[in-house]
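Sharing a chain and its predicted structure for anyone who wants a worked example. Both blocks are below, sequence first, tokens second.
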Amino acid sequence: MILGSRVITLFVVLIGVPLVLIGYIGLVEWVVGKLPFKWRPRIRPWLWLLPALAFLSIFLVYPSIYTIYLSFFNTSGKQFVGGQNYVYFFTTQGTLNSLRNNAYWLILLTFFTTGLGLIFAVLFDRVRYESTAKGLVFMPTAISFTAASIIWKLMYQFEPAGAVQVGMLNEIITGLGGQPVAFTVEPAINNFALIWVGIWMWTGFTVVILSAALKGIPVEIIEAARVDGANEFQIFRSVIVPMISTTIVVVGTTMVINALKIFDVIYVMTGGFFHTDVLAVTMYTQMFTDQQFGRASAVATILLVAIIPFMLINIRRFQVQEVIR
């Protein structure tokens, strides 16, 4: 029975979906062909976009609107409670801690991934083994967040003083005569230890994007700056950074969005315990553990509202770049 259902699913995916797509294309062109010639350029794009708009409405727009709607209701979703779920969010220490931790992620992840990415891109551009170096830095980006979290959970593994240290970092620390550190448990450092995992993963992405922007700077401008007596730091500050500032902003806002919706690292490594909770983990806990659907919807809405401005900044930057081109 299970094998039969899987075969049917495979048949639908490999054959059914392409056939429906081909049929829709043929139908669209037939309908457009029946229209007056002057209408065709206006109608055809919308008919081509219709399936994408339908999927977007079903799987993105409707769930977003319904989530906002649920955020004004109680746990069962039947009694209207107004803004109580939002009041709970902004007056409860646990949710405020998650908001604070998300601020840590937003500031540190964005700063270090963008900063290190820019530095590495400039340095790698000047060595013969540029491709190899960028490949090594980019490699963690190809790993899923879950896999990276497991890797670093083992790296941070803690055993009491005197016991054999399984985690590599604590093995190094004790080997140098220090005391083992509970990286994921100690509140003073655990959030920064988790953020480092995100930095380790995303720096390769920023290196590749910023390196591509760096390649677009005309060599003549750099050489002219050197002829005028500028040193390498002055070239970096006054020539390179201004000329790729648009890309830096896009990369930075992308990192902000990633920081705001971070979930996997915290959920796998700490489960949100030891004061490492963030908004996405709070939403998950409220929804699936506490069964507080109204509160979970409020957290999701707050997260959506926080992300929208940065999405608009990115869209605006892309529009500016298109106009320049």
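Comments welcome. The chain has two domains: 2-70, 91-324.
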